[in-house]
């Protein structure tokens, strides 16, 4: 990051960006010069987030979208490219959690978690990848989790979605690297957001959304001939 604006003029698309990790990623990429496109399901929160970014002088396109719906994904990507230009950085961050024994879950719970955490990555990346392939460049960063590496009680459905996401990321990387496109996974431990319960943990010692955003910034500014395929992110001290 020798230049203060290493992403000047580039377009970055971030899903699930109305708060938490997604908003932190949009902010850091915008501060690095990128024009950012953000989406989320909650219109009110998304508009508030977009206003925060605009107050910093960041160029923003914001559109509510459920990224597990292929029709809405296509409309969001088309709107992004019309407003800002071709997408050069994609951060698949949208996700939801379910933390309870699997036998208490319903089929609807399974569908909701897998559609949001896994299917959405397939749909959004599939929509954006052809443009990256034609330009023979691009970054795709999938926000996975250490839950995609480790089992814990009550994590069956969430872990299933993240283990699958890690595997899909690795295969996407193999499909796209020949075109100069790097696909990476960032796997953080528990992050201090309202995403999941943190009972008994010292929040001040937990990872913060900005720490995950810093990892994303590192990935999109690595040297052209290097390829960091996966980042495992933990707090310095256990909370």
Topology:
Layout: E1 11-15, H1 20-31, E2 35-39, H2 43-55, E3 60-62, H3 70-83, E4 89-92, H4 107-135, E5 138-143, H5 156-176, E6 181-188, H6 209-220, E7 230-233
Parallel strand pairs: 1-2, 1-4, 2-3, 4-5, 5-6, 6-7
Helix pairs in contact: 1-6, 3-4, 4-5
What's the domain count?
Answer: 1
Give the averaged pLDDT, no decimals: 95
Strand count = 7
CATH uppermost class: Alpha Beta
Please identify the structural class as seen in this structure: alpha/beta
The rounded distance between the terminal residues' Cα atoms is 30 Å
What is the architecture at the second tier of CATH? 3-Layer(aba) Sandwich
Which percent bin holds the helix content? 40-55%
Write out key terms for the chains shown.
15% strand, 7-stranded parallel sheet, alpha/beta, 7 strands, globular, 239 residues, 42% helix, Rossmann fold
Plain-language structure description:
It is built from 6 helices and 7 strands. It is 42% helix and 15% strand. By secondary structure, it is α/β, with parallel strands linked by helices. A 7-stranded parallel β-sheet has the order 3-2-1-4-5-6-7, with helices on both faces. Helix 3 runs parallel beside helix 4. The protein has a single domain, classed as Rossmann fold, CATH 3.40.50.720. The mean pLDDT is 95.
